[in-house]
Amino acid sequence: MGEGDPAAGGFYYKFVTKDIVYFDLETQRTAGDVGGWNRKQLMKVSLAVIFSTKDGNYTIYPEKQVGELVTRLQRADMVVGYNILHFDYEVLMGYTVLDLPHYLPTLDLMVDVERAVGHRLALNALAQATLGIGKIADGLDAIRWWREGKLLQIAEYCCFDVKVTRLVHEYALQHGELFYTDRFFRKRKISVNWRCL
Questions:
Q1: Would you say residue 197 lies in a domain?
Q2: Residue 115 domain-assigned?
């Protein structure tokens, strides 16, 4: 039985009938390359990855398939990501006329977490404190790999980021809380209410 197999039962089965799409992308350029963070539409997609709870599969989209990616996101019951409203969608809007933040049903985990704690937290901080796992690289590594032509490494990193986002979201759905470590190295709890999805 695979992870997406309804016969497997458990928590995952609750999502089989809903098409929850976890999404992340990596870029070809840094903010410095394009003249600042207000010009994200010029940063260009290197690779994007989604995971769909409906089919239980990861799908990788290179830049030439960004149109297909946008179409796929439109079919989702909910798109879930970390900082996708203010980063990933803005990068994608360099390829489409759609106003994605207002067009797609979206849960941006970072927005809710920031609202709860009063400041931004990295996905890595939540994953380490909540699940004991950490990211394997960062966005600057992915840009360097793009310049070196190492697309497989970008794909592996982006898939792992999507998996971490999914695990953090699913933990919060099950337990109604997440954790992070504050600047005094104390483990702190964040109450979240994402059960309506």
A1: no
A2: yes
**Lowest mean pLDDT segment, chosen from 34-38, 84-88, 192-196:** 192-196
Query: What are the pLDDT digits (tens) for 102-123?
Result: 999 999 999 999 999 999 999 9
What mean pLDDT do residues 87-102 have? 95
Read off the DSSP letter of residue 149: T
Q: Ramachandran region of residue 3, left (φ > 0), alpha (ψ -120 to 50) or beta? A: alpha
Burial class (CB in 10 A: 0-12, 13-18, 19+), 44: middle
Collect all residues with Cβ–Cβ distance below 8 Å to 12 and sequence separation of at least 6. Answer: 3, 4, 53, 170
The answer, as to whether pTM is greater than 0.90, is: no
Total count of domains within the chain:
1
Q: How far is CA 30 from CA 26, 36, 144, 170, in A?
A: 10, 8, 10, 31
